[in-house]
């Protein structure tokens, strides 16, 4: 789809934000502010999710603020997210278009939709557009926008804009997580801790600082020249830096598709990702580039509360499969244990967590206090 001038301008602005090194909270606030002039919404919920389970890990909400919103938010978390939204997000992830519009899905009869009756009618809203933020086959975030009945429904152009942005926002969320992890210094071998490493690249053309973890990953990728920081930068570092600069230039449509990230095969047989992002600075002329090196395997977005409840490794595996919506028979098959053992594990989990149902255990472990301190 060919965007008009305003949409094209916002497309470029938000894509640049995705590689500006912002943390996920500030990034979401900036994106909302860029979208609002062209996609005016009365309510916006912009979430990060755990890619392993699809469960929400944080939320930024803007728009309607009253007691009714708090009430429907609880309904959303306890019921609709599992019954409607998470299955829908998974369908969108498997489709070629990660966005859907309520008005289009109901052929204009939005009031017929269950989520409209439960969520939007009580707070005077009507139409909705929702999107999945992803990288590859992993979901890293979601966005839900809603507006009043007196306004026009969300357009096809709105949907295409979010679809274009979705992989870049997903990449930004993943990078923000690794930025946090990269600040942790290893106290043991990289094979044991798998901590991402961080390089700081000066635009003049050299590496001005790096963490110990980064040096371990660089050595995993091959021999380093004695002057590797200034004279002989590894080619993969040069490539991701160049990709970031090209991506930010936005001179052609192909530039928009460039994501400053690549993967390489390490000495030990592991795949390692190298990605670049522009770091924040008061003076644009002195902006540095951050380069993250880390394992290319899926890792948890957050450490859930299972350790605090004293769950065994097998119980931990069971509760994560429950969170993904697996039945007892599916859990039995995936873990190669009997259905009786699955029920025994579930009984132990319920006792340790102090709940009586699967839904309650997922809510207590994964969603406890989710929205505290995030509203404004």
TrEMBL record:
It comes from Paenibacillus violae. PROSITE patterns: HTH_LUXR_1, HTH_LUXR_2. Keywords: DNA-binding, Transcription, Transcription regulation. It comes from the Bacteria. Pfam families: GerE. This is LuxR C-terminal-related transcriptional regulator. Residues 303-369 form the HTH luxR-type domain. Gene3D superfamilies: Winged helix-like DNA-binding domain superfamily/Winged helix DNA-binding domain. InterPro entries: Sig_transdc_resp-reg_C-effctor, Tscrpt_reg_LuxR_C, WH-like_DNA-bd_sf.
